[in-house]
Structures are given as C-alpha cells and as structure tokens.
Amino acid sequence: MASLSYHEILTILIASVVAVSVAAAYQECSNQKSVKDYCSVTSFPDLCYNSLVPKIGSGITQPQEIYNQSAELALAEVSKASLGFAVDGTLQQLIVGKTSNRSALQALEICRVLFSLALDNINTSLSWSDVTIPENRDGIRTWLGAADADLETCQDGFNDFSYEIRDLIAENLKNSTEYIINSIDIITEIDRCASSTMEGNKNCYKGDHNPYCMSIKGRRLLQAAGPNVANSDVVMAKGGSGN
C-alpha cells in the first residue's frame, strides 16, 4: 500500500475543481444570454438575428444550440452558393459572356475545389459537438477560419479581372462569407463568456491548475476541502485501485 502525499492529493482535487469550474462557467453563460445577446456581438447582427430567431426563438438559448444552428445556416448558404460556380452554372455563363480570357474558367474550377473544402471544413466544425469543452471551441474556430479562407482564396483568384467580374464574384460569395464570420463570432462569444466567468484566464483551459484561475465557486470548493485534504490519510493500493 502506498500513501499519497499532500501535494498529490491537492493536485487531484484541483484538477477536479477546475473541471467543475469550467462546466459551471459554461452553464452560467447559457443561463443568461439570448439570441439577441449573441447576435449583437457578431459582424452582421441583423443577418444573425433574422436568420436564427425563426429557428430557435428570441429567448434565452443554450450555446450549443445557437452555434449548431448558426453553422448549419452557414453550411446551407455555402452549399447554395457553390451551385452558381458549377460547370455550366449561371455564374460561369455570365462570366464567359463578359470575357474571352480562358483563365476565368480556370479560376472557376479552382473555386469549385475551394467550395468543396469549405463545406468539409464547416462540417468538421460541426463534428466538434460539445462546445462546453474549451479545446473544442478552439477547434471550431480553426475549421471555420479555414472555410472563410477558402472562400477568400476563391475571390482572390479573380483579382486580375474587370471590376464587373470581381463584383459579380463578390456578390455570389457575400452571404456565405457573412454566415461563416457570424458563426466564428458566436463561438468566440461563447468562449469569451466562459473565459470571463473563469476570470478571463485562458491558462485555466490549458492545464494550469492555479486556483486563482478558477471560478469563485471553484475556489470556495477548494478552500472548503483544503483543511480536510491537509489532514487526510489517503492510502492507495499499488495497483492504483484505491482499495
């Protein structure tokens, strides 16, 4: 039988309290924010509010639900926009009618590949299904940022063409880009809210078990347990079973 040291016991306790604190921070945010609150911090608040309210209402909403719905809207809009870039699609016909430059068709082909990547990236962001986990929120921002970059690269491929063609491309990408950016803003706000509740110290999310980066509730739990831990005689079997 091997006794755990006080520091080992404290480390285990702190890790448990940090996990409780992160969950509590997320829950506190989810209990006080409405669709309007989330949409007010997005880059395109009217688009955000008018598209989300018909789906989830205007009241208090869970962060998971508002993110999922926002990303689903972005996915649908990108999918819709991709149709215009299809072979012999409406956009291709318009561009061919405005220029004889064969590189325009090459740029459209590149855009078709980039649209496919953007759709994959948004779908991947939706696969990170639990936004209560800080690392998932980081992953979601990464994949949505990649989708936004895909569409930006598509648009950049037409920089050497006429203003008329560039405006045509920009107009076809406008809604897709705005929905993606709003989704990024929403997941950033979810993270900001949770981080703020955790006193804004992101080290809490990266394995730093400093009790000062916990929520007030978490610190009180640790303080309450501290004296008991200090006086405990915890014994663990060599196999780690605790028996």
Characterise the protein shown here:
The protein has 243 residues and is an all-alpha fold. Helices cover 71% and strands 2% of the residues. It is built from nine helices and two strands, in the order E-H-H-H-H-H-H-H-H-H-E. It has a two-stranded antiparallel sheet. Helix 4 (63-84) packs antiparallel against helix 6 and helix 6 (103-127) runs antiparallel to helix 7 (134-156). The longest helix has 35 residues, at 163-197. The chain is elongated, with a radius of gyration of 24 Å. 33% of the residues are buried. The model is unreliable at 12-25, 198-223 and 227-243 (pLDDT under 50).
Provide a concise account of the structure shown:
71% of the residues lie in helices and 2% in strands. The protein is built from nine helices and two strands; from the N terminus they run βαααααααααβ.
Key terms:
Pectinesterase inhibitor domain-containing protein; mainly alpha; 2 strands; 9 helices; enzyme inhibitor activity; single chain; Invertase/methylesterase_inhib; Pectinesterase_inhib_dom; 243 residues; two-stranded antiparallel ribbon; signal
Strand order of the largest sheet: 1-2
- Element order, helices and strands? EHHHHHHHHHE
- How would a textbook summarize the main sheet? 2 strands, antiparallel
- SS-based class: mainly alpha
Signal peptide: 1-25
Keywords: Signal
Protein name: Pectinesterase inhibitor domain-containing protein
GO molecular function, one term: enzyme inhibitor activity
